């Protein structure tokens, strides 16, 4: 029988949690400095987590960590960690811990439950909707460019139209993933873009690209260099709808990888929103591994 007991002192769990995260982040090719930056962000958010020891007949077999907080006026729960030791997997402890976490959060008024996965969990969270994935790949050598595709810097005249379309696309991604309402997504878009590129095209450490074939514009790109030590973050690599299905998506990835190396970084990272299976498939085929995947479910959970 699976048992749960709240921990009064979490240092042993935190050491184990950080060890597992460090191994997961390193496995996808992030350098030590980038891994430490990601861990710093995690540490900053775990102070309010409630951690329970998972036990079987008095023997500790794992941990589960939960928290409930306000998220844009809605109480939302989060499973911050759920781990069962390898020797004790496959005995139902994972499912029991998931059910315990859902009940714990629902009892405290949560109307939604989020989880951020950093490793395989089988079918345990299949009923949860995918909100987004963070993917990355280490780039060891310049990519082979696709014949005929040229990536050039965006001009000041091209920037306003690109900026407007990027904001619209960002809102659409957020809403499609189920993260926010359309009104909330617009407010988030306004706030995020103001912080990310306050100087527009002149914002330092950003690359704004236009992709062309035979002088015709087929797409755009936006990358932030030094997002983490040695890591470029791809905010957008976009192929216009009428030019899709011709292999240009991979050409856009190659352009992003070239810009990454030119800026002195050695890894490229992306977020892909839930519901965008085409992009997920592209990133998988290009060797971009999932660092973490965010999922959610509405509470109370249906009986299905």
From TrEMBL:
<protein>
    <recommendedName>
        <fullName>N-acetyltransferase domain-containing protein</fullName>
    </recommendedName>
</protein>
<dbReference type="InterPro" id="IPR000182">
    <property type="entry name" value="GNAT_dom"/>
</dbReference>
<dbReference type="InterPro" id="IPR050832">
    <property type="entry name" value="Bact_Acetyltransf"/>
</dbReference>
<keyword id="KW-0012">Acyltransferase</keyword>
<dbReference type="Pfam" id="PF00583">
    <property type="entry name" value="Acetyltransf_1"/>
</dbReference>
<dbReference type="InterPro" id="IPR016181">
    <property type="entry name" value="Acyl_CoA_acyltransferase"/>
</dbReference>
<keyword id="KW-0808">Transferase</keyword>
<feature type="domain" description="N-acetyltransferase">
    <location>
        <begin position="149"/>
        <end position="304"/>
    </location>
</feature>
